[in-house]
Amino acid sequence: MDLLAEIKNLAEVEAAEVTSLRREFHRHPELSHHEERTARVVAEYLAGLGLEVRTGIAGYGVVGRLRASRAGKSVAYRADMDALPVTEKVESPWRSQTTGVMHACGHDFHMSIALGAARLLTKLKDRLAGEYRFIFQPAEEGPPKGDASGALGMLKAGVLENPSVAAVFGLHVAPSLDVGHVRYCPDVVMAGSDHLVLTVQGKAAHGATPYRGVDAVLVSAHALTQIKALLTQEVDTRNPVVLSFGRISGGNRFNILAERVELEGSLRYLKESVREQVLAILRRHLAGLAKASGAKIGLATKSIYPILKNDPRLTGQAVEILGRVLGAKRVKTHLPAMGSEDFAYFAQKVPAFYFFLGVRTPGTRGQALHSPDFNPDEAALPYGLKAAAALLAVTAGSE
Ligand SMILES: [Zn+2]
Ligand SMILES: [Zn+2]
Predict the structure, then answer these.
(1) Cα 54 to Cα 47: distance, rounded to the nearest angstrom
(2) pLDDT for 241-265, tens place per residue?
(3) Residue 172 C-alpha to ligand 1 middle, in angstroms?
(4) In the chain, what are the domains?
(5) Quick check: is 305 catalytic?
(6) Is residue 143 pLDDT above 80, yes or no?
(7) Which of 35, 318, 71, 60 is nearest to 171 (CA)?
């Protein structure tokens, strides 16, 4: 039997195992940089398969290595491990047992698919070439809480080196796509994002005499509406950009003009040049508003995650492999998402391919990621397993 046919068969055999792993992770979610139990389960499972295991990387990161009998390329697969501060509403026997924490972003799927692929490829070890690295990364959801990204820590620890990997793969579950389908982007996959902090410093005065002060609330309101209008007027509308302010605070009392207001927002873009352009526009207009109003306006920016780009050559090969293992009809292109993802750091280092796995039950509307109702369909697991195992085996040179 050819290698891909063998992978397809084994993925069906392994479906029950991968499902039980997923339920185990789902029952015991852990927040970013607290994935202690999760890391232990992952490390023990990989060691049980006979892989060489390294633990405690950048916190709770784990890497398992599988060396095939024949020489070939080194390839890597990355799964993220953390859950979210969300209280699960879905009733199931494998419901979260930790109040207020839930695998609401599907990282339980990501890990169980990675472990399933490690097990499947171990069974095929004699037929494979190359070296397979399974990277389990903590703290993908780091921001907006302000934690450091888990991916950066793993890269600093050299998980893609010694020897340097030829390709790294990863996937994210997609609740807007039916089970059995995958989607990919040929170039940009996900947006780069920045955290913006806008501060407006006015001058307090009695609410009865606003002319004696500088009203930071009023200036903030002008700033917000101007900013929204500027983006549509000054940025080429063919370049997607999103700027959302999710937090605003300021003032002390209803009848005192606010002295200071702080706004926090998220800027997202698919091109670095657009980021530069938007920040320049903001600075220019805010300086004008400051002059006109008499307020002091500050803008601080911090990059959260860079733009995630697939490698064009690897993408071509990966799409061909996915077509062979899943059927070409199930593999289609997708528009880039305005969300962001720290897999982008891996993709900056080595050729990467990141894709989306459908987890919506056909005929339903699906639920949003990060919501308490998020309930991905487990029927997607064997598709993810086939995709991951085939991408790794073929890219390493096993055929
Ligand atoms: Zn998430
Ligand atoms: Zn996620």
Answers:
(1) 10
(2) 999 999 999 999 999 999 999 999 9
(3) 9
(4) 3-190+307-395 (3.40.630.10), 192-305 (3.30.70.360)
(5) yes
(6) no
(7) 318
